Amino acid sequence: MEDKERTGISDRIWNFFASVKLTVVILIILPLISIIGTIVEQQADQATNIKLLTKFFGDSAAPAVYNIFVKLGFMDMYRSWWFLGILILFSINLIVCSLERIPKVLRVINNPIKPLKENVIKTLPVKKELSIKADLKKVRDEILNRLTASRYRVFESTEEDSVQLYSQKGKYTRMGVYIVHLSILLIFVGAIIGARFGFRGFLNLGEGEYSTVAYARKGGKIEKIPLNFVIKCNWYNTEYYYGKDTPREFQSELVIIDGGREVKKKVIEVNSPLKYKGITFYQSSYGMLEDAIGTFILEVTPKGGQGSILRLKLGESFEIPGTNVKGIIVDFSPALGRNPETGALTTYAETMVNPAVAIEFDEPGKKKFKGWILKRYSETGVLPDGSQINFLDYWGVEYTGLQVVKDPGVGIIYLACIIMTLGLYVSFFMSHKKFWIRLAPDTSGGKGYVKIIFGGTASKNRLSFEREIDRILSKASRAIEGSTQRSAGAEGIKK
Amino acid sequence: MSSSAFFVISELSYFLAIAVYISYIAFRKNSIGVIATSITVFGFLNQSIALIIRWVDSYHYWLVSNPASTFIESLLRGAPLRNLYESLVFFVWSIILFYLIMEFRYKNRSLGAFVLPVAALALAFIDISGTQKEIQPLIPALQSNWLLFHVLLSFLGYAAFAVSFGAAIAYLVMVTESRKETSYIFWSIIVGIFAVILIAMGVDFFSLSAAQREELIQSHFLKASFRSSSGGIVAISWVASIAFIFTIWHFGLGLKKMLAGLALTPNMLDDITYKSITVGFPLFTLGGLLMGAIWANSAWGTYWSWDPKETWSLITWFVYALFIHARFRAGWRGKKTAILAVIGFIAVIFTYLGVNLVLSGLHAYGS
Ligand code: HEM
C-alpha cells in the first residue's frame, strides 16, 4: 500500500527506468550513434582519419574537426565513457523494467484457471460453436479424451445440466522475454569479466624460437605479459591450393614446456587454436625473419631405395645414397615464377609463396646440370636416373604471428548465446494457450442435441492455436457422430 | 544441363512472374494469379536444381584439393554459400521460399507484386555487379562450420526481412493519402533511391568493357555517374536522379488506386510485416550475431571487435528490436512500424553490401 502512495523522487527515478519509452529512446539512440564509429576509423593513426575528414570538411577544417572528435572520444568511441554510459543506462533499464514486470507475470502464471460464464466465453478471441446430436456424457468423454491425448491437463466443473472443460498450456512461456533480457545482461557480464581479468596480446615466434611472455599494446606502449610457461614454435608453414597462390591453410607446430617438461604439442591452424592454462594461441599472421639464414630440409630417395632426411645450408653438398651423384645447393628463391613476357625465371615475391631450391648435380664422367626443385610441386624433384628429391622446407626464416588471448568471460558469453537462443524460441514460437469449453443441452435445436461453446486465448500465434482446436473438435465430433449413427442403426433393427 | 543454365531459367521465370503478378493486380483475374504462382514455383524448382548442382560441383572441387576430407566435411565445405555471388543467389532463393509460404498461408497472391521485385533487385545486382561467379578455393578463415551456419541462418533471416520490407512498402502505398504526408514522401523517396542506384549501376555496367565488369563492385561502383571524375557528369547524375525521384513522388498515388479494392488489406500487410519480422529476428539473432561471434572467436580469439561489419549487424539488430518493442509495448502501429520495417531492411542491405562498398571505399581511395 505504502509503495503505491509514494510519489517521491526515488519513485520517479524508478518509473523513469522502468518505462519502455526509455527503451525505445535508447534503441533509437544506440544505432544512430554507433554509425559514427563505423565511418571514423577506430583506434587508427592520426593521418588516416585526418585524410578521411578532409573528404567531408575540406583541407583547412579537417585538423580542427579531428581534434574535436578526439575530445569527444569518437576515435575510440566504443570504449568511451559516454558510450559505456549508454550501455549502463540500457542495462539498468532492462533490469528495472524486468523487475517491475516479472512479479506481475508470475501472478498471471500462478493464477489458477477458473470456469467462466457462458457470455464471457463467447467474447474470447478464438471461438467456435457447434451442435451435435448425442448424449452429453458421451460428448464430454470424447472431447476430454482428445484433449488429454494432445497433452492438455483438463479441469472440469459441473453446474446443473451443463459441463465446463477448461485448461491451459504453456503458461511459463510468458517468461521467455525475460530469458532473452537476462541473456543480454549475461553478455555484458561476460564482456566485463573478459576485460577485467583477461588480456589480448600477440607474439611473433620464429621457427625454432621460444618465449615466456606475450606482448600487448597499452596506450601506445608495448607491454610484456608473463605466461608462466614456455611456448615454442617448431615450424611455420603455408599450404597452397595446387597450382594457385591461394592459401589453403596457415599452420604452425607449437610446443608448450611447463616445469621443464614438454606437456603439449599441436599443429595449430586458423579455426583450430591451442589452449593451455586458460590462454589460447591463435594462428593470426606470418612473415619472414630479417637476415635469417635458413636450413634446407631435403628428403632424398634413390630409385628403389629408402628415403633419408638431410639438413643443409646454402653451398653445402650431399650424395644420393647408393649412387655417386653429388648435389650442391647453389641458390634459393622464396617465390619462383616465370616472367610472363620473357619466360625467364624470376622471384616474384618476398614471402615464401613458391619456395624453390637450385641444386647442381655432378656425376663423374657426366656433364654437370642444375635444376630447380619446388617445394609445392614434388614432381620437379624427379631426377633423370629415377631418384627423387623432395624439398620439404627452408626452415628458420619464417615466423608465426600468434594472437594470445586470455578471456575468462568467454564461457559466460557462450552460455548467454544458448540462453538467448532458448529465450527467443520460447518468446517467438511458443505461446500461452487457455480455453474453456461449455457443454449443455441445446435448447434451440431439436431434442437430444448438445451445444458446444468454445472460447480461448493465445498469447502468440493465434492462427495455429485455432487450427489445433479445429482439428481436435472436428475429430471429436466425427467420432461422436460415427458412434451415434451406429447405435441409432442398431436401435432401428431392434424395432 | 549446367547449374548456370537452370539458374538463368529461374531468373527469367522470376522476372516474368513479376509482370504476371502486376497484371493480376491490374486485371484481377484469378486465372492470372494462378499462372503467376505457377511461374514462381517453376522458377523456384529450377533454382533449387541449380543450387544442388552447384553444391555437387563445389563438393568435388573441395575434394580435389582435400582428398583426405570426410564426406560430411566435404559436403559442408562445398555448401554454396562461399562468397558474395553464392550468398546473394541463396538470398534470392530464400526470399522466394519465404514468399511462397506466405502466399500459401494467407491465400493471397497480390503481395507477389511487392516481394518478387526485392528478389529481382538482388538478381539484377548479381548480374550487373559482375561478382565472381566461378567456384573458388576457400581461404583458411572461411573453412569453418560456424561460418557456414552463420551465413545460412543470416540469409534466411534476411529473406524474412525482405518479405517484411515488401509488405511494409505495400502497406505504406495503401494507407498514405496525400503527397504531403511524411510517410508518403518516405516511401516514394526510398523506392526512388533503390531505382536510382540500380540504374546507376546499369550505367556503370554498359560503360565498362567485359573484363572491367568483373571488378564493377570493387573498383567501378557508380564511377560512371555520381562518382565520376568529371564534375559535369556528377551534376547531371544528381539532377536526373532528383527529377526521377520527383516523378515517382508525383505519380505514386496512382499505385494506391491500383491496389484499392484488392483482397490485400492494410491489416493483412501489417500482419505479414510483423510475422516476417518475428521469424527473421530470431534467425538473424542466432545466425547473424551469435554464430558470427562464435566464429570470430574460434578464428581470431575475439568474439566482438566493433569492426564496421559487426557494428552494422548490431545496428540492424537494434532497429528490429526497436520494431518489436515499439509495437508490443509502446503501442506503435501502422505507418510508424512500417517505416521501421523499411529502415530495418535498409540496414540489412547496408550491413551486407554498404559496408564493403561505401565504407571501405571511404577508407581506401585517396590513399
Ligand atoms: C536490444 C536488446 C533487447 C532485445 C533483443 C529484447 C528482446 C525482447 C523480445 C524478443 C521481447 C518479446 C517481444 C514480444 O512479445 O514479441 C521483448 C519484450 C519486452 N522487452 Fe525487450 N529486448 C531488449 C531490450 C529491452 C530493454 C532494454 C528493455 C527495458 C525496459 C526491454 C523491455 C521489454 C519489455 C517490457 C517487453 C515486454 C514484456 C512483456 O510482454 O511482458 N527490452 N524484448
Walk me through the structure.
The complex is a heterodimer of chains A (495) and B (367). With 495 residues, chain A is α+β, with helices and mostly antiparallel strands. Chain A contains ten helices and 22 strands. Chain A has a five-stranded antiparallel β-sheet with strand order 1-22-21-3-2, with helices on one face. Chain A has a four-stranded antiparallel β-sheet with strand order 4-20-10-9. In chain A, β21 and β22 form a beta hairpin. In chain A, α2 crosses α5, α3 packs antiparallel against α5 and α8 packs antiparallel against α9. By secondary structure, chain B is an all-alpha fold. In chain B, α4 packs antiparallel against α5 and α6 runs antiparallel to α12. Chain B starts with a helix and ends with a helix. The C terminus of chain B is likely disordered. At the A-B interface, α3, α4, β7, β10 and α9 of A face α12, α13 and α14 of B. The complex binds protoporphyrin IX containing FE (HEM). Protoporphyrin IX containing FE sits at the interface of chains A and B.
| Major sheet size, sense and barrel closure of chain B | none
- Largest interface, counted by CB within 8 Å of the partner chain's CB: A-B, 51 and 50 residues
Q: Judging from the principal axes of the Cα atoms, what is the shape of chain A? A: elongated
| Main beta sheet of chain A | 5 strands, antiparallel
Count every beta strand of chain A, where a strand is a DSSP E run of 2 or more residues: 22
User: Which whole number gives the mean pLDDT of chain A?
Assistant: 86
Helix tally of chain A?
Answer: 10
Q: Helix fraction of chain A?
A: 25-40%
Query: What is the distance, rounded to the nearest whole angstrom, between the alpha carbons of the first and last residues of chain B?
Result: 46 Å
* Order of helix and strand elements from N to C terminus of chain B: HHHHHHHHHHHHHH
Short description:
Chain A has helices at 2-5, 9-18, 20-39, 46-72, 81-110, 118-121, 136-149, 176-197, 410-429, 462-494, and strands spanning 126-133, 155-159, 162-169, 199-206, 210-218, 221-240, 247-258, 261-269, 274-276, 279-288, 295-301, 308-312, 317-319, 326-333, 336-338, 345-347, 356-362, 369-374, 388-395, 398-406, 433-441, 449-458. With 495 residues, chain A is of the alpha+beta class. In chain A, helix 2 (9-18) packs across helix 5, helix 5 runs antiparallel to helix 8 and helix 7 crosses helix 10 (462-494).
